[in-house]
DNA sequence: GTGATGATCTTCT
DNA sequence: GAAGATCATCACG
């Protein structure tokens, strides 16, 4: 297994703090078809209802429901839900127990198990330049779930900070020195809140290249 | 390259 | 009953 497991404490902070921290870390899935891993290059923060003002775009914003219950539990758990009836999105829960908040994983750079990811995505490897292939595989919240084989039934609620877990977030020492902050993508409320964090110019980052944002160095 | 469209079904009101 | 943290595809320039 690459890198070291991140402790629970890493996740017990507000999403706008955990989001930038997650850039450069590895999402690792020990799947039936082998080890699948990707480096996190783009995330979005969704704030809990305790926040002032509350985040109207967050699934937790009207309090716990059967779907969003995971978000109110311990930090460092996977929140995987179905979107538009046909895709999945994966989040990492944040904040201490009783408080909601999460970080949506929007894009990865494939690191291990690329051939299996291509199979999972139904993408032909032949004739594609490496960067093009990587983008096809894991550039987008539902694409990365498909590539890593993540589903709501199998993965929602898994503890990412448990050494026995099939799904973990790990740190292999990759240092991110700069990030791009922009508004979040695909939402219709709080459309201009600066809660999307990405590695600048990374080829796997999803969405338009031309979103207005600001570059910030991480010291 | 950009922009529009439809697929499809879970979740909450 | 309506909306949705998306994606692939197609038209157009």
SSE layout:
Elements: E1 4-5, H1 15-22, E2 26-31, E3 34-47, E4 78-83, E5 87-93, E6 101-112, H2 114-121, H3 130-138, H4 141-148, H5 152-155, E7 167-171, E8 178-182, E9 196-198, E10 213-217
Antiparallel strand pairs: 1-7, 2-3, 2-7, 3-6, 3-9, 4-5, 5-6, 8-9, 8-10
The protein binds a DNA duplex (13 and 13 nucleotides) through β4, β5 and α4.
What does this structure look like?
With 219 residues, the chain is α+β, with helices and mostly antiparallel strands. It has one domain: Roll (3-methyladenine DNA Glycosylase, Chain A). The protein is built from 5 helices and 10 strands; from the N terminus they run E-H-E-E-E-E-E-H-H-H-H-E-E-E-E. Strand 4 (78-83) and strand 5 (87-93) form a beta hairpin. The longest helix is centred in the middle third of the chain and has 9 residues, at 130-138. The protein is globular. The protein binds a DNA duplex (13 and 13 nucleotides) through residues 44, 46, 57-59, 62, 65-67, 81-87, 89, 91, 104, 106, 140-143, 152, 184-188, 208.
List keywords for this structure.
ten-stranded antiparallel beta sheet, 219 residues, alpha+beta, 30% strand, globular, DNA-binding, 3-methyladenine DNA Glycosylase, Chain A
- What is the number of strand segments? 10
Question: Helices and strands, in N-to-C order?
Answer: EHEEEEEHHHHEEEE
Number of helices: 5
State the end-to-end distance: 28 Å
The CATH architecture designation is Roll
Estimate percent helicity.
Answer: 10-25%
Could you list the spans in which at least 5 consecutive residues all have pLDDT below 50?
none
Strand coverage percent: 25-35%
How would you classify the helix and strand content by structural class? alpha+beta
Q: Using the coordinates shown, work out and report the CATH topology.
A: 3-methyladenine DNA Glycosylase, Chain A
**Relevant CATH superfamily:** Methylpurine-DNA glycosylase (MPG)
User: Which value, in Å, is the CA radius of gyration?
Assistant: 16 Å
Total number of domains: 1
**Text of the CATH class:** Alpha Beta
Shape: globular
Q: Characterize the biggest β-sheet.
A: 10 strands, antiparallel
Average pLDDT, rounded to a whole number, is: 96
């Amino acid at each position: 297994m690459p890198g070291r497991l991140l402790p629970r404490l890493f996740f017990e902070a507000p999403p706008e703090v955990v989001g930038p921290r997650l850039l450069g870390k590895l999402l690792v899935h020990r799947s039936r078809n082998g080890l699948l891993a990707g480096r996190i290059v783009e995330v979005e923060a969704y704030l809990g209802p305790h926040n002032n003002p509350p985040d109207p775009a967050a699934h937790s914003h009207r309090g716990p429901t059967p779907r969003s219950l995971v978000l109110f539990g311990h930090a460092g758990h996977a929140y995987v839900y179905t979107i538009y009836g046909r895709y999945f999105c994966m989040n990492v829960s944040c904040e201490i127990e009783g408080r909601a908040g999460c970080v949506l994983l929007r894009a990865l750079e494939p690191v291990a198990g690329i051939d299996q990811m291509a199979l999972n995505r139904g993408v032909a490897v032949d004739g594609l330049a490496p960067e093009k292939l990587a983008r096809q595989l894991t550039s987008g919240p539902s694409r990365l779930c498909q590539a890593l084989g993540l589903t709501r039934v199998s993965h929602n609620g898994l503890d990412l900070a448990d050494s026995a877990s099939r799904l973990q977030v790990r740190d292999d020492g990759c240092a991110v020195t700069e990030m791009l902050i922009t508004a979040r993508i695909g939402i219709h409320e709080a459309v201009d809140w600066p809660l999307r964090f990405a590695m600048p110019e990374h080829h796997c980052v999803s969405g338009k290249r031309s979103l207005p944002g600001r570059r910030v160095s991480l010291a």
